[in-house]
Give the backbone structure.
Amino acid sequence: MSRDVNNKYWDEELETLPREELEKRQLADLKEIVQFAYDHAPYYKRSFDAAGVKPSDIKTLKDIQKFPFIDKKTQRDTQGIGSFLGELAAVPEEDVVFVSTSSGSTGELGGSIEATRKAIEDLWGAEVYDFYGLSDIFGACAAMCEAKDGLHIAENHILVETVDIHTGEVLEPGQVGELVFTTLRKHARPLIRFRTGDIGWIDNTPCSCGRTHGRIHISGRKDDMFIVSAVNVFPSDIEAVIRELSGITGEYLIRVFERDFTCKYSVEIEKNADNPAADEAVAAEVSAALKARIGVKPYSVVVHPDGGLNTRSEHKAKRIIDERKLDYSI
Ligand SMILES: [Zn+2]
């Protein structure tokens, strides 16, 4: 089979499937995989029974919401039980021909933060496209199209939900929460309602590229989040603000600490060498921009000269220091 290299689609029929048809196929696959998981993976049999749900409860896509979550911990706890592949496995070991190993991180984010992606494009004079993959599921689960407005999900393979990070309550498209994936066609080790630990929102509005598969916008990792005055703060949101402002280099360091028994954050930045503004004025501008975007202003903004932060020297510079986690005990 030869492909037309001038066609922007990989599989035009599939990528532009009317949503109604796409969802019909998703539902058929969902029913099949949930039944398969229940029949073949010991973990799912046990957890569905404990939750009082059965595969035949799936009548619409929304019915997946009745089923229990799994997460990274479930994977760890069930690994190696029964067989090498563990209790999430739904096929005998001898039927599996390839086992993928991962570095242990969950979401693998590329230049997911819009401002960072743009900065890379400016620096290299190249187009940068983002993709999102979970090694637990398979390489790429979602990828950016030429419209660069979120990442299209491979919805023929994955059913995606967003849930409240604290309560697990299912959210509407557009609301920011934890991304939850269900694999629709992976039989060796199906993942039913896998909490990814990645924070983002779903966009099902039509995309200018013509693809009908929904998009995800990723804002950060749940593990990196901290709470200031009841507001969920993501370092990635702080980064986006810092990268967008002019007159500063875009380098930054975030400190999270406790003052008067409440969580605070401070931000250190670098002023451009040719920026004539006073440090106080730069700090006030950064503080106001953070307050506007995040909802809580930083405890302080420290302004360094260009190159004053040590964040460029290392390959993977540490940009967040959580002083609450430092252990002072002897
Ligand atoms: Zn698109």
User: Anything to note?
Assistant: The chain has two domains: 12-102+154-214, 226-325. Residues 145, 147, 152, 207, 209, 211 surround zinc ion (CB under 6 Å). The radius of gyration is 23 Å.
